[in-house]
Amino acid sequence: MAETSSPVALYDEAASLQALQRYGILDTPMEPAYDDLAGIAAHVCEAPVALISLLDSHRQWFKASVGLPLRETPLDQSVCRYAVRQPGVFIVPDLAKDARFAHFSIVTQENPLRFYAGAPLVTPDGYALGTLCVLDHRPRHLSQKAQDMLCALARQVIRLLELKRANDRQGQMLVELEEARRQMAVLAHTDVLTGLANRRSFTARLLQEQALLRRDGEPACLLMMDIDHFKRVNDVHGHHVGDQALQLFATLCRDVFRAADMVSRWGGEEFLALLPATRVEQAQAVAQRVHDALTTHPVPGVTPPLALTVSMGLSNFDPLRPLDITLRALDSALYAAKREGRNRTVVV
Ligand SMILES: Nc1nc2c(ncn2[C@@H]2O[C@H](COP(=O)(O)OP(=O)(O)OP(=O)(O)O)[C@@H](O)[C@H]2O)c(=O)[nH]1
Fold it and tell me: 207 and 123 in one domain?
């Protein structure tokens, strides 16, 4: 048995296992980069077998295996387990003559392995994860030069593992970044209180819809809705109840409108809905359903029960008319509804 210089390895079963798990390498497929290093180790050490062996909790698992058709063996059959417990290359000139290993199946099998040399795989923070080892069918030794090369190759294995970890981290960061970007896009398009589309995103949608309508000529309607005496709700019951009332209104809209319709929070207590493929008479029926839903769904947690009412302006969506003119007409219809006593819909 002999040693050469190599990084000082710390083998602490639990900590080393934890360090190994951080690389996420166990049970990954064979990869040419690791196979190459094992192949070079076999060549440099003139050995028929070379392994990149990682010490798991109950087994040694081979990331690369040259000349041995195995991916893992039980831990109690592992020579590498001894190799990681000491600094430098661990060499067993004849496994059959070493009481610790003579009974191992690699030694007792047909065409047994007799020689072992393993360089520990030491992480930058000093944990030994396993070994890069070579084995031979005959008892022998390993030159100092070859031992140095084995250590150098072991360091390259660690570099590959570090690279993998950096790539994995980068991949994870990209996933997180994409998720944050998606959430920001949603937030940019959504009214936080009600979860409805905000005015900005809805304006874009209206312009889009206008272009579509110009092409296919389908009827569509716009419905401007404004909760009546909402200032009073705030003043009498507090801002918190006012917010709840807005949320209730949004929830009822989600129930009343069809999935193809789109409702937005246009301003404070003002909501604008687009009803594609809908004629004015059909939209009037939808508006009535909103009025009805409000009478049967008072604002939660308020006594005596507080039922909201809403005034609405309704018009067909003429794609040939500039959007601001359409919106102004809707506004006028809405204020006509207010003037006429609220809780009603006025059609332009
Ligand atoms: N709680 C709450 N109140 C809001 C919000 N946005 C706007 N408001 C309030 O909505 C009220 C709107 O009041 P007005 O524009 O006077 O209209 P109104 O009281 O609904 O009266 P009419 O529209 O004429 O029926 C104001 O008191 C705003 O402060 C909000 O996000 N939360």
Answer: no
Is the predicted pLDDT of residue 6 greater than 70, yes or no?
no
Q: What are phi and psi of 68, to 5 degrees?
A: -140, 115
Ligand 1, atom 29: nearest CA belongs to which residue? 231
192-212: per-residue pLDDT in tens?
999 999 999 999 999 999 999
The CA 248 to ligand 1 mean position distance, Å, reads: 15
The CATH number of the domain where 206 resides is what? 3.30.70.270
In a domain, 118, yes or no: yes
Model's pTM, two decimal places?
A: 0.64
Q: What is the 3-state secondary structure (H, E, C) of 289-341?
A: HHHHHHHHCCCCCCCCCCCCCEEEEEEECCCCCCHHHHHHHHHHHHHHHHHCC
For ligand 1, the distance from its centroid to the CA atom of residue 332, given in whole angstroms, is: 18
For residue 188, being part of any structural domain is answered with no
What is the overall mean pLDDT for the chain?
Answer: 94
ipTM value of the model? Answer: 0.92
Task: Show the ligand 1 pocket: residues with CB < 6 angstroms.
Answer: 193, 226-232, 234, 239, 242-243, 246, 268-269, 338, 342
Which domain range does residue 234 map to? Answer: 199-347
Mutate to test the pocket of ligand 1, among 192, 193, 269 (most ligand atoms within 8 A of CB): 269
